[in-house]
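@channel sequence for tomorrow's demo:
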Amino acid sequence: MALRAMPTGVMWVIMWVQWIGFTNSLSLASSTHDSTSPAPTLGQNREGSSDPQACRYVVENRTVDLSLWRGVAVVGIALPPGGATVGGASASHRHSPGGTLIRTESESSPSDPPSPSFNLSLCGNLTTRCIDELTKVKQPPGALYAMFGGEPAGRCWDVLARWGHLESVAATPPDRGHGITLGFSRPGDPHIDCKAVTVEVDVLCDHTAPAAPRAARLVGRQTACDWSLELRTSNAAVCGGG
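structure tokens (generated this afternoon):
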């Protein structure tokens, strides 16, 4: 029996459906590839084996592994403008059990107003989210919180940096000590009249400081739109080779 030719209109419809199916399969393959491709590694052009998600960095041919600080809130004080430099400043350091935000008024006498302070994570974001003291809104997780001093527990003045804002890791300049410097940068926010906010954290080896991650000594200072913090520890993760 002779086969009849397929009408031209039907043939074009079939070809169109096949083409749509083909392009959709390409799109699906592309999106699947994008979702499974590894994210670029911080500093991969300079330090190919550094891994910021694991908090492991290679600087000047040595490895600094800060993963011991994951889930740890290091609590320090904010130095007043001017006066002593951050480097080498001596100060008492308040600890925050369980990684929660400190309640500084419980640690100060009425005649000694609580100092502005910081909560800092050296590996990922802090495990406790803070409530913005001005807006009363709970903020997304961050790596560095700033407090005026005296806020109720769980509240902060601002989230100065999130782990995703980490842009650079380098060896600390020799005149500032043996360690590494973490650099964060982000756009300004309603709290700060700045187009951009930068945070630089020197993580330094100091054999006179405690080795326990939570007990590290932390001080910091704001200069306009820039924050400089200094964390001192005798932990082998930082002091190795120094």
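heads up for whoever presents: Helices lie at 8-36, 236-239.
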